[in-house]
Amino acid sequence: MAPDSDSVRPIQEAIVEVAQKLNRPGWSAYLVGGTVRDLLAGRGSRAGGVQPRDVDIIVCGAKHEQLLELLREILVLDRLTRFGGLHLSKRLRSGSCVLFDIWTLADTWAFRSQNIPPRIEDFPGTTFLNIDSCAIELLNPPGRPRALFAKGFFEGIAHRVLDVNYAPNPYPYVCVARALVMAARLGFTITRPLADFILHHTATGGIEALIEAQQSHYGMVRCDAGELGMWLHDIRRQVDSGQHAIGIEVSRARRLKLWRDYPAAGDSRSQPSPSRSLIPV
Length: 281
Prior knowledge:
Distance between the termini: 30 Å
Structural class: alpha+beta
Strand content: 15-25%
Order of helices and strands: HEHEHEEEHEEHEHEHHEH
Oligomer: single chain
Low-confidence stretches: 264-281
Number of strands: 10
């Protein structure tokens, strides 16, 4: 069942409150990555609609210390990410929790590792997957259209395909785990370059590395070793047969569960953990 307006409205209000707090001279905030993806892709996933649990926001023109001081006034700081981002939460009257991941543009790993000036229009080119490569301005100044930057994002959603957008990444096993979970959850096909990336890294680190990556990224194991092994075997078979659009066989029931099995509010996703990392890519 799609989320009803009464359950969605408090989430919208929380996002608006954060957006207005970030609306300062010289700053601009952008909704990025998974939040936009889940809102769009969830409609065609047979999940019946989806409420994103993580709201990912990049802030241009701000410094880390400024963000921390400002946002602590309205949100609870749960922890810092490895790249200096802020993992925050807001408890709603219903008892549920809206989770935010907010970081400065300069803290995006690709910009820091390449030592190049960070520009929001270049951000979509730094995400590992094509369906994370989008940035939408939260609040546009009067008289100007809302800014939107993307690189293959809408094409990936429209054609229901996952592809590698920017391969360099300090955590390749997290990238592989995310790609497999998303392909299964969304029912998207995988391109040959992404399949090659997956097979290359699993040949090196094996399934155990993917189990650890899920614990680090999601705070839980969403797909066990047996399921991962079956998917990897099927991907290898399709690659060896020369296919370029590679699919993962997942039942409708399992796909729905993958939409709904995020950890509940208040569990490990909201607790500080040195191994937990939401990578801002």
